[in-house]
Design brief:
eight-stranded mixed sheet, elongated, 15 strands, 344 residues, five-stranded mixed sheet
């Protein structure tokens, strides 16, 4: 079986990997084990932190048939011991003759599996469909490189940049379709974060209740409130099942460090203008979803508080990703990058 078969088997492994969860502390990985006669003898994918890695699941399925076979893995097999043992050593012990992987592991704590395999006499080929594998785990790789959770700031604003009217009312600036779209995106993160001020002013639930198309939410994100004041016991965010985490700090970096330690990798920031400004000034916003309603208020609360910008020369420009019409509103998705002098 030559290298010409590798892309097809790797695409099968990538389809398996896509079944894995995100957000999760671990990447999504798939593995297909193919015998010398071209028959699949085992396959598997990672089901989330604390569960067997894709290679281990595939090896268990293959049993003795793994000896002399080729393992196609979407990510370089790990060489470290965490909650589970090193996959590179498991492949060696199973007697596979060849390992083909797509993406090299960007996590320095887990990389080096290819060297372990090569030292054991196993033929190793890397880089097969590497771009496709990297795209599958783009957000995971980004947070690993940053060493903190990714942060997506969501805001809803009028054309004149107001997030609330002069009397403080803000429900609803955007229409129902936009709100359903927000819930769909919120469901793809593992935590939604607001400040105590937002809890007191708006009394949000912070849950996923409506999805585009009317489907059920795949998961409920962790509800996180940061600020020195504890959210009231009677707040609506306590009504839904699941945990509510209070972080008694105003420091965005301290909050993200705690969430990273707790296994949170993707944060949906829905706080008010003060909290948003704190994250932006610290250079801790990675993506922005702005829902803009074709409406005017003329006065009221700005969508973001002071960023310390006094001249147009210092304007914070974002990288436009896409613009989408959602019902009667417009959704702007942009990538943010830290200012030259982000606050420490």
């Amino acid at each position: 079986m030559g290298d010409t078969a590798a892309p097809a088997w790797m695409r099968r492994a990538l389809r398996l990997a896509a079944s894995g969860p995100w957000p999760d502390p671990n990447p999504r990985v798939g593995c297909v084990i193919v015998a010398p006669d071209g028959v699949v003898v085992g396959e598997g994918h990672h089901h989330g932190a604390g569960t067997p890695h894709a290679e281990i699941e595939a090896l268990h399925a293959a049993g003795a048939a793994a000896r002399g076979a080729t393992a196609y893995v979407t990510l370089e097999p790990c060489s470290h011991t965490g909650r589970t043992g090193p996959c590179a050593e498991a492949l060696v012990e199973a007697g596979v003759s060849r390992v083909v992987f797509a993406q090299s592991d960007p996590n320095p704590n887990a990389a080096g599996g290819a060297e372990v395999l090569h030292a054991a006499g196993i033929h190793v080929t890397g880089g097969v469909l590497a771009d496709e594998a990297a795209a599958l785990n783009d957000r995971w790789a980004r947070c690993v490189a940053l060493g903190r959770p990714l942060v997506t700031w969501k805001l809803a604003t009028t054309l004149d940049g107001r997030s609330a009217a002069a009397d403080g009312s803000s429900q609803w600036i955007t229409g129902e379709a936009a709100r359903a779209d927000v819930h769909g995106l919120r469901a793809t993160r593992d935590a939604v974060l607001v400040g105590t001020g937002t809890v007191l002013a708006d009394d949000p639930r912070l849950t996923v209740r409506r999805m585009p198309g009317g489907g059920l939410a795949p998961q409920q994100p962790l509800r996180v409130v940061m600020g020195e004041r504890r959210p009231p016991a009677g707040a609506r965010l306590h009504e839904a099942p699941g945990e509510v985490l209070h972080l008694a700090t105003r420091d965005p970096r301290e909050a993200l460090d705690r969430l990273w330690h707790d296994g949170i990798r993707d944060v949906w920031l829905e706080g008010g203008p003060t909290l948003a400004a704190a994250f932006l000034r610290a250079g801790l916003v990675d993506d922005v979803y702005a829902y803009v309603a074709p409406a005017l208020l003329g006065s009221g609360r700005a969508a973001v508080a002071d960023l310390g910008i006094t001249s147009i020369a210092d304007v914070r420009r974002l990288d436009l990703v896409d613009v989408t019409v959602v019902g009667g509103d417009v959704r702007i998705h942009a990538g943010a990058h830290p200012p030259v002098h982000a606050e420490p």
